[in-house]
Amino acid sequence: MLKIFQIVLSIMVVSLATYGLITEDFRFQSYMFLSLSLVMLVIGVREFKKGKKSIGWLNIVAFVFILFVSIKIF
Predict the structure, then answer these.
(1) pTM of the predicted model, to two decimals?
(2) Alpha carbon distance 69, 33 (integer Å)
(3) At 52, is the secondary structure helix, strand, or coil?
């Protein structure tokens, strides 16, 4: 379930970033950062489930930072 959610969010991040680069229209950049933060959260949870706590914490910290940036952009 988490892997499918991670793939869907990753595709959304890549498509929004590609759209912004090709059209030079960055109005969806905040949504891209929000999706990227959710990807980092999902990766962190998956790493916790695997037993890799240090990498999981690193991803959770990255999630919080990117979420803060996306909220500031809104």
Answers:
(1) 0.89
(2) 8
(3) coil
Which residue bears the tokens 């690193």?
A: 58
- Residue position matching structure tokens 């969806």: 28
For tokens 């869907």, the residue is: 8
CA nearest neighbour of 69 among 44, 33, 18: 33
> 10 vs 7, 27, 36, 41, CA distance in Å?
5, 19, 7, 12
pLDDT in tens, 10-68: 999 999 999 999 999 888 999 999 999 999 999 999 999 999 999 999 999 999 999 99
Residue 71: half-sphere exposure toward Cβ, Cα within 13 Å: 8
The three-class DSSP label of residue 47 is helix
